[in-house]
Amino acid sequence: MPGNRCQSHANEARGFASLLSYTSAKLSGALFIIEMMNYYFLWTKANKTADDKLAMLYNFFTPDDLENWLSSCPFGTSPDPERELEKQRSDFEAALVAKGFKDGN
Question: Based on C-alpha coordinates, what's the Rg of the chain?
């Protein structure tokens, strides 16, 4: 009867190998999904970082309302001599509102 005993152990080993390969396949599938999610999140983070850098460059080289007011004030790069004090003050207030430093009320 030693042959039956060996056959029994062989069947157990095949069953264990089958279970191991099934578990390994499930685990590798889960790891693959986790890895794909990781690549996706890293890509979106890198993409957002690139978008932020492009927005910063655009904002750096594009003048806004406050920079336009500063360039046309008496101490600016192209002062407007015809501008009166009240007009200058109202333009300054409008530039502050446009930049969000002051409420528009």
Answer: 35
